[in-house]
Amino acid sequence: MTKVGIIGLGMMGSTHLDVYSQRDDATVFAVSDIIPERLAGKAKAEGNIEGQAQGGADLSQARRYDEGMKLIADDEVELVDICLPTPLHRQYAEAALAAGKHVMVEKPLARTAADAQAIAEAAERAPGMTMVAQCMRFWPGWDWLKAAIDDQRFGKVLAAHFRRLASHPGGPFYSDGKASGGALVDLHVHDTDFVHHCFGLPEAVYSRGYSTITGEPDHLITHYLYGDAGPMISAEGGWAMAKGFSFQMQFTVNFEKATATFDLANQPTVTLFRDGQAEPVDVGPGMGYEHEIAYFLDCIRTGQPPQTVTVAEAAATIQLVEAEHESIRTGQIVQVDQTAPTATGA
Predict the structure, then answer these.
(1) Cα separation of 233 and 222, whole Å?
(2) How far apart are the C-alpha atoms of 158 and 164, rounded to whole Å?
(3) In the beta sheet, which residues pair with residue 334?
(4) 14 close to 35: Cβ distance less than 8 angstroms
(5) DSSP code of 135?
(6) 166-221, pLDDT tens digit by residue?
């Protein structure tokens, strides 16, 4: 039974809390939030996907701390789950790692590539295990796609497009581009990371985008360039849609022998088109959050470091996001540092 401490009870912290509370191999031993109403269980954040932040967890037996460093100092906490605003990730991750804890850091790993690299280096030195909550690597349908790409069951990928759009969530953090990074860093990073996961680092990126809310890119489209022989890969992300626009999460992937689509709003979410037929694909229940947490708890139990997502890969994804930002700023194709880890951790 792993004793878990969650720092930050916003939307993602509450979502993680719900997952841990439903498991029999972990217990929510401690929680921390600087907002008294959240710490007392009298207020909760809302999610943008059905099933997030349900608020059904019983915290009556959990230790409560008004500051995350106090939770980290609790010797009985074994796993620290950091769900704080992005600019605070490095400070709390380094402290938890130095204290010998296992650490889960909510995505994005950090606000900047420099901070992400610092966390990766601290994780390499630390005795505990570290995992970044890149939930799309575990999301039903997306993990199916990764397997289909790897084993080439439908041939090679010719083209793929990923799409993640929403209206702006509001609130001071998401409205402050210096803190959140705009939709580029906070939302689109999911698809950047999944492209990295499936296809490795591109040779270069070409991005166009605009800001209407945060001062940072709030809507963008990126082409990930894999050379003349590589697949055509692109992703669109943004939270600049008009109020009332429903959250959309989609992919369309064209293989040599089939086309696969995902649409969160559909049931089934994944459809495979081949031989003139549309086939529903059974990808299993749940969301990426419960699968990523189950995976990390199993890593802790078995002593096997995470491989589905490594801290080094997550740091490389932030470098890739920064290349996209530079392309938007300059209007030019930007080369990607190929010395960063690939999706296989090499």
Answers:
(1) 8
(2) 21
(3) 205
(4) no
(5) G
(6) 999 999 999 999 999 999 999 999 999 999 999 999 999 999 999 999 999 999 99
